[in-house]
Design a protein that fits this description.
Blueprint: H1 3-23, H2 29-54, H3 56-64
Helix pairs in contact: 1-2
Length: about 70
């Protein structure tokens, strides 16, 4: 896995943790929906990053890109 992929995984995980901490606070229904959506988006991005790095041809190509 490239350094960039490792970094992106870490960023997505940190964002998810931050949003989960926010969910433990008092939120309006609109705020809660927004945070829930952000969590879902970060989880999808994390899965996509992990899947991308598991693809042998794609991962090596991505590692060479600037």
């Amino acid at each position: 896995m490239s350094d960039r992929a490792v970094l992106m995984n870490w960023v997505h995980r940190q964002n998810i943790e931050r949003y989960l901490r926010i969910m433990k606070t008092e939120l309006t229904s609109v705020e809660r929906k927004f945070v829930e959506q952000r969590i879902a988006e970060e989880q999808a991005d994390l899965r996509a990053t992990e899947e991308f790095t598991k693809s042998p041809g794609l991962a090596s190509t991505a590692a060479r890109q600037p």
